[in-house]
Amino acid sequence: MSAFWLMHAKEWKESLRSYRLIWLPVVFLILGISQPLTMYYMEDLLQAAGGLPEGAVFSMPEPSAGEVIASVQGQFNQIGVLVLVLAFMGQLSGERKAQTDTMILARPVSWGSFAAAKGVHVMGMAAFCYGLGTGAAVYYTSVLYGTVPFHDAISAAGLFLLWLLLVSSLLLLFQVLFASGTAAGFVTIASALLLSLGSSFFAERLPFLPGRLSSVSSQLWMQQPVEGLLGTVLSGAGLSIGLFFCAVYLFHRRSPA
Amino acid sequence: MMHIRNVSKSFGRVHAVNDVTFSIAKGSCTTLLGPNGAGKTTLLSIAAKLLSADSGTVEIDGAAGDLRRHIGFLPQFPQFYSWMTGSEYMIYAGRLHGLTKKEAALRSRELMEQAGLTEAEERKIAGWSGGMKQRLGMAQALISRPSFLILDEPVSALDPKGRKEVLTLMEEWKAFTGILYSTHVLSDAAVVSDDVVFMQDGKIVLYDTMEGVQSRAGSSSIRIAVTPLTDHWCRDLERAPWVRELRQENDAVIVQLESGEGADRKLLHYVTETGVTLTHWETYRPALEDIFLEVMQS
């Protein structure tokens, strides 16, 4: 096995031993399950809580299946991304600080693979957690509300996954650039926010910015027409790959060997 | 042979390592001695390819470039993945060197036994003592059977018992690798080293074999007091071929003799011949510490 795969396997093992491989998917699962359930039982919940006066009629428009999943995804985009970044912001910088990397980098391994193994692991975890959470959301939504056409679901999920990969690449890059994991995490969240804000600000004139990935994904879930889908996918994929290899290259360049 | 040639490294305006050249033969042990801040760790990190030199080369058997596969490295403060067990770490380390899982496991067991860690090898490193971690650090450096071991302060942080254990391991492992290690514990250098490199302010101030260094120590010094003590008497004594150095201290004279037989007898002869009265005679042999201080001062 190549050094890259060994180091990648070590990342998974570390996530398992630190229970990150358990609690992180659980967070996504809870988000994915709770949103359809609370939306469905909102009326009963409000009545049980006694918050409504006697005789008041409470009616909410019945959301479509797509709208339910889009709102789940809204949770993933806020809480999910935050938790993912918090869980991994010390991944590379933590090793640099604790100097556990010294005895690894003194072996015949490439510095680039060392960083890449970490980045790929975060992407794997993101895909795993998101897949699990969305799977649960789709299941409960199908039971309570109805289904979303399969190909729409796949492309919507793929788009949001691409957004998560972009965030993972940002996190890796900022961990290479900053010595502090906290700083890397903060800047990652801030730049993800800026990307989203920027793309919605320029939505009219530049309908292909990578920051649109999550909002376009929600539109797809809700089966709304989307403009500039291909451009968004291409720019999103391009930026993710670009940032990832930029991070790997910058770390590799520090190698004295 | 490992050759370190004209290696220099600066951090800003500080010359951490300044034009250092020396060699280590396989099967021998070279000690890097020097006070804190002499540039020992920087030099070892350059040799282990964890730091790039500003100029100069490190070669093993004529090859430069990425030598990491030929080198086993122990940093000054080895930090392990504490969630791994000892043998997991060893196998991971071995596989990164390209060993198969089986080879790595076999090699790990062998080294763990030599390091006296067999009982702990299946326990998480988080619960290990400092001495055990240091020995694991030694063992992980050897997992790939490197031609050279680079050890940064392998004994300095240990208690006397741990120190002895690690020195014993070094003595055993010297048989099949070249060892370059740094220390500021001078008495340890005397135990295992063949060559000694004294460093100060990034420069080599003395590079000699252990015997060579000890023969400097072997030349004994004698502190004598005579009456009357005249300048003339001292000048004549200093000119004698068996006197290396003469230092006057209050009303006594410290005579450093050339090494070799009979120098002290010649001194005694000189005293009686010149007709002065001997009031004090004290012989002492400087320890490595004294040579160290002397070399560092000169």
Keywords:
heterodimer; A: about 260 residues; mainly alpha; about 75% helix; B: about 300 residues; alpha/beta; Rossmann fold; Alpha-Beta Plaits; 2 domains; 6-stranded mixed beta sheet; 4-stranded antiparallel beta sheet; 10 helices; about 35% helix; elongated
Structure write-up:
The complex is a heterodimer of chains A (257) and B (298). Chain A has helices at residues 3-17, 20-40, 42-49, 65-88, 91-98, 102-105, 111-144, 150-177, 181-201, 213-221, 229-253. Chain A has 257 residues and is mainly alpha-helical. Chain A has one domain (3-32, 64-253). Chain A is globular, with a radius of gyration of 21 Å. Chain B contains ten helices and 13 strands. Helix content of chain B is 35%, strand content 30%. Chain B has helices at residues 40-47, 86-96, 101-114, 130-141, 160-173, 186-192, 210-218, 231-238, 263-273, 288-297, and strands at residues 2-11, 14-24, 29-33, 55-60, 71-74, 148-152, 178-183, 195-200, 203-209, 221-227, 243-249, 252-257, 277-284. In chain B, helix 2 (86-96) packs across helix 3 (101-114) and helix 4 (130-141) runs parallel beside helix 5 (160-173). Chain B folds into two domains: 2-215, Rossmann fold (3-Layer(aba) Sandwich); 219-297, YebC, transcriptional regulation domain (Alpha-Beta Plaits), CATH 3.30.70. Chain B is elongated. The longest helix of chain B has 14 residues, at 101-114. In chain B, strand 8 (195-200) and strand 9 form a beta hairpin. Chain B has a six-stranded mixed beta sheet with strand order 5-6-7-3-8-9, sandwiched between helices. A four-stranded antiparallel beta sheet of chain B has the order 11-12-10-13, with helices on one face. With 298 residues, chain B is α/β, with parallel strands linked by helices. At the A-B interface, helix 1 and helix 6 of A face strand 5 and helix 2 of B.
Secondary structure tally, helices of chain B:
10
Helix-and-strand structural type of chain A: mainly alpha
Q: What is the CATH class of the largest domain in chain B?
A: Alpha Beta
Over all CA atoms, what is the radius of gyration of chain B? 24 Å
- CA radius of gyration of chain A is 21 Å
- Written as H for each helix and E for each strand, in order along the chain, the element string of chain B is EEEHEEHHHEHEHEEHEHEEHEH
Structural class of chain B comes to alpha/beta
Shape of chain B: elongated
